[in-house]
Design a protein that fits this description.
58% of the residues lie in helices and 0% in strands. It is built from 6 helices and no strands. The radius of gyration is 48 Å and the shape is flat.
């Protein structure tokens, strides 16, 4: 019988031999020299089972990217808001000189609102003029549609139109027709 480096010795060895299975029971007479199955455990704490779980790599990557972009956005915006509130502060009312016409962004009190009104948003006057232009264009389209409808109705009522229409022809066919016409003209004298 072959003896492994893990041999049973003492009382505990006999119990482990009995527990290890039928091969140890067969060799119970050789209690000092029985073979035992030794399970190797790394760390030997906790259960010897490994549970397969989904990876949390995507979750950790999402958290990292979310924190990175939040910090990348919040810190500069926070600094800008803090600096505009502390260094510039809100606007104060003052009398307007006689010849001065205030700009549209000068009516806002907060510096960030003034900046947005000046460089990002359109003024009320510009919005109104864009609306007027839109209404003018729509009115022109309406007038053209009414005129086209009137022309079609008059053509249908009177029946005094030849209703010409354009039919594109290819150049090679046009050349063939011209050559045939030239041949007819030359032969018949038309």
């Amino acid at each position: 019988m072959r003896i492994s480096p893990f041999t049973c010795r003492g009382k505990m060895s006999v119990l482990s031999c009995l527990r290890s299975g039928s091969s140890a029971l067969k060799n119970a007479s050789n209690a000092g020299k029985c073979m035992t199955l030794v399970k190797r455990e790394m760390g030997s704490h906790g259960p010897a089972k490994m549970f397969i779980t989904p990876s949390r790599w995507q979750w950790h990557k999402f958290k990292d990217m979310f924190h990175f972009y939040v910090v990348l956005g919040l810190i500069p915006v926070g600094l800008i808001v803090f600096a505009s509130n502390v260094l510039v502060g809100p606007a104060k009312l003052a009398p307007i000189p006689e010849d001065y016409v205030p700009k549209n962004w000068e009516y806002y009190s907060h510096p960030i609102s003034r900046f947005l009104a000046r460089y990002v948003y359109t003024s009320h006057q510009q919005d109104y003029e864009k609306y007027l232009h839109f209404m003018y264009e729509e009115n022109e389209k309406k007038q053209m549609r009414l005129l086209e409808k009137k022309v079609r109705d008059l053509m249908a009522e009177r029946g005094d139109t030849q209703a010409y229409y354009y039919r594109p022809i290819l150049t090679k066919y046009h050349q063939m027709v011209r050559e045939q016409y030239q041949n007819l003209k030359d032969t018949r004298g038309l």
